[in-house]
Fold this protein.
Amino acid sequence: MTDAFHQRVREIFAEAADLPREAQRRLVRERAAGDEKLQREVEELLAIDADSGPETRAIDLVGGAAKALLDEALGTHGNAEKLPESLGEYRISALLGEGGMGVVYLAMQDQPRREVALKLLRPGVHSRAGLTRFRREIELLGRMRHPNIAQVFDAGTAPLAWADGSRSQPLPWIALEYVRGASIAEFARRRGLATAERVDVFLKVCDAVQYAHGQGVIHRDLKPSNILVDERGEPKVLDFGIARSLEDAASRERETAATQTGQVVGTLPYMSPEQVSGNDVDVRTDVYALGVVLFELLAGRLPLEVRTTSVAEAIEIIRRVDAPSLGSLNRECRGDLETIVAKALEKEPARRYATAGALADDLRRHLDDRPIEARPASALYQVAKFARRNRALVAAGAIAVSSLLAATILSVVWAVRATRAEGDATKALAESRRSEASARAALERAAKEEARSIESYGTLRDFFLAVEPTVAAGKQLTLREALDAALPRLTQPRGGDPQVFAEALEVLSRVYRGLGDLNRSERLLRQALETQRGLDRANPAGVLSTLRGLSSVTFDIGRVDEAEALAREAYDLAVQADGPESREAAKSLLALAAILNERGQLKAALAEVEKAARILDPSGAMAEPYALSAAGHRALVLPHLGRFDETNALFERIVAADRATWGERDAYYYATSLQNYAFSLRESGRIDDGLARLDEATDIRESVLPKVHLAHARGALLRADFLEILGRPEEAVAACDRALDVAEAVLDADRPFLSRVRLSRAHSLASLGRGAEAKDEALRDLAALKAKLGDPFLRLPWYEVVVARVLLDVGDIDGAMAHLDHASAVLVETLDRDHYLFVPIALTRAQCLAARGEAPEAIATLDDALVRSERVLGAKHHWRGDLAIERAFLAANARDVATATSHLDVARAAYATSKKLARWRMAEIDAIAARARGDAAGVDRACAAMEEAAAPPPRVRRLRAT
Amino acid sequence: MTVDETALALGVSPRTVELDWRMARAWLARTLSDAASDATP
């Protein structure tokens, strides 16, 4: 579809929109004049407009939400219809104007007696910080004294008063010099000024702006209606409503609504490319606006006609389309003036006049017939610059305006379509080589279409990254629906550049992954990979990144074999393309290491991580994302090897670096590191520290991710294991149920993660004496993990212990012992006899032996474990407390008070590391001590205290048993 | 931002803003419903 076609559709739509049905039909038929395509298009759009379906309502909802947000930021404007009587000492006589920022009244001041323009800021625009800045700005503006600048008299905060005695809330106000006059354009027209006379008046405006710049004030909203000329021909620049000091601009403070709306509420035809893009503005932004004003003054029309276009089109035009040459509109201006105006209107600020003064100087040189500084741009430069303007269409902040929102969604849907036109333009270029002018026109068209496709992609990327949960803070539901509905269309292969299409698919996949939809994320990546592989000359970096992404998603889904194959493929490809020492190869090694880790091949995983880290982070400074990733992978493997001190120190650095690298915006990464840190702290026995990290991670996750996301399930599982350690198995079961709820919504039923959660749940059920409920499923899940991940897999010895505890709880002691034997065998074979997981194995084995009536063997096992564990875990690990309790219990059964007491001391010291850990355990220690003494009443009292502190029933039961 | 405020900011009439919005909305609604029916085989 061409622009002309769109334009016709738009015109006819506008004309017909509010007519009755029949009249609509007649008018459309008439206007289309036999163009069936045009007629059909308008009729369809009108029909949808008249009869709003679910889609229309969804769009209104999105638009409405954006509008509500903006209204909230702007505040509502009550009492607008009735003219207020006064404000402080000013008596209000007329309404001069109203804008996004506020309202302007004509008012009379008594002392000194003079007419002033009273400008009021809209309520809600100002925060406390905003008011402080407002006062600072006014002070600055009040210091400006220039004959061609409307003077700022005074400012303050006061309520408006109406004749009927009602008052508004106090509003910030500014009293400005009231200028009676016509806009500069109107003035020049009415007086019929000659070109040189127009330039003369304009020069005074330049001087005024130059003066303000010297005071550190940028106007930001220069336009003819802000430049009034009085009877004597003296121009005055007014309305510094959105001007802010240069210092403020330099400090990039953008948090106030006033500034944000200021960026949106400029006056489009006079806004510079950097201003409509939401980029930083400086004095050269005013130079651009001056250029537009001068152009209009000399040519009688705007350089770029954007008044009748849509907002999105206007922005595109301002950013990409060059103004026609002034000389083509006004022959008198050929030569110097044309060149000067063109230089002021350059898209790149760096190519404009550096100051308003420089612009004035060149104009004076022209009037004096001296050579000017500006040079006409070379043809080569004009062609080349089209290629450079490929940045994103709309700044993210502008999306809040509903019409911009619509435009953005539209360009998302249009995404890659525009590339088609490229072929035509190339052909046109070849055909028109004879004439340089037409060749340039063709090139321009090609560049424009190419830019549009890249920009559409950029917009797509911006839009989706904006919805990406790390940014959108859980408010994306409606947008999600829109996205889901648009997806089939977005993923249809089209005629454009397949490389761009593949990239778009990858971005989409990232978004769906962020939204927690792993399966859709995987499908999109597979399509991207197919697209890339279909290319003659595939871009290896693109394929590699897709392969790694795919490996990571399939890994998260739990298809570990596939994930490993993909990671290895990525590695081989990277080695082929860039060599084994390349960064691409190292990135693939990290993907591989994560998988080896999951398979329990810890030493191999660590070796790969270290190899990758030598390439990605040779200095160990974690200064960029992949260096950080290398450190993160290392910290993922180390705790499983029991190297806790090293891991915890490493995590401290990682967490700090995460905060520095990702910051608030991508807090999700920081939260993930915190959560991994929490695991390491827990394993090393620092329970309270670990819980604090987990709580922080949970808060962040819940504020940045949608409700259904695998990360929540991982967090809940980690919390469940903490709760089990704290002796709160019932709450642990509940946490597992939460994890399952989320994970089952994201993953297929047979995925390893779900097995891990169910096994943790079974463990806590066994602690509650309800192992029978979980036994069969626990056995199935353990077998499933071995089948999916290999035997061994990560923490296999631990899961063997879990199953053994479930079996012990249901009385299957031989079965339990068999699982413990396998756990020990795996430890010895793959890690080390003294690997820290031997502790829970020994504890459970002792419990099994005791249950079988083999107390001496149980005691020997515990004594051995107590000695070895001190070396591996340190004296105060809670597992040592568990061993000591068990040993004391056996001593108490034998009425061996001395042995019981000494072990209870060990237990007390271990549990004293955490108040949460101590809860019912101190009562249990008392109960065992009483049991050792044969003090039945003491046992009863202590057991009651245990129950009071919600100890798991089986713990109490065995102490009461005789 | 109301239609009026948008119009003021853009230097176009409120009517133009309203009609533009309605047409964009209709276009988008059609595209979304097309896409939705594409999804069902």
